[in-house]
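Marked as duplicate of an earlier ticket. Keeping the data here for the record.
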Amino acid sequence: MKKCVFLSTDKLEDFFVYDMLVAPHLERLGWHVSELSWHDTQQDWNQYDVVIVRSTWDYQQHEKAFLECLQRIEDSSCALENQLALMQWNISKTYLRDLHNKGVPIIPTIWCDELCHNDLNPDVFETLNASEIVIKPYVSANSDFTYRLNRDQLNAQKSRIVSEYKNKSAMVQPFLNSIVEEGEYSLFYFDGRFSHAISKHPKVGDFRVQEEHGGHLKLIQPSQKQLSLAEQTLALLPHPAFFARVDIVMTPKGLAIIEIELIEPSLYFNMDEQSALRFANAIHQKYGL
């Protein structure tokens, strides 16, 4: 019997996790499925056939240890998805800069390898042609250390934010009203094939779209332009992705990539009743036949 592990973490009580919806489908295909924490440093990964990174939603707090865990899996006899090299590339949001250099539209960004007071001077609003800005780390998840600020808020909070970001990198972007008015769009791909898509809207008074922050989700049929942008982006990755979530927003200049999640995105199997089956079939077709 083939063995598949969904790599998770220790405490997920405050999160919405749907990965094990895949398990019954894989089990019917003859697989044994388990969910293990990446924090378990004593695990013998050689006893499994494939490890798929899923809800490792605290990795950004322990980047070095997380990458060391992935390296141990890579060094074992089992397969790791996504590929380690792809996840190493994707772990820092500077991957967006790489994609932009290849022609992919992204949100205008000021890259600060070490955030300091000068990066947050009042001119930043003119530079980005924005009345509000968003600050977030290069390595982040769950909107940790993410701020949406107008001029007055930046002036009041700048010293604290710079102190919080001491020795940390940050990206500064214009806040897009479309995130509140229209939402974000997420398109999901399993082994290169489109599976399903959703829209994500923040709750009233917020800008974060995650369920944990009160975001509202809806299953959608993506437009041809959204599909084309997602597939253009996937074609430019440095390595093929077994799973990918492509996050798209509308900007004043048209559609743009806000994220392409290749490490631990929720794949929202709860939103499309066939998506968990598609994921199971993708695993089986690649590793079970």
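See parent ticket for discussion. The longest helix spans residues 151-164.
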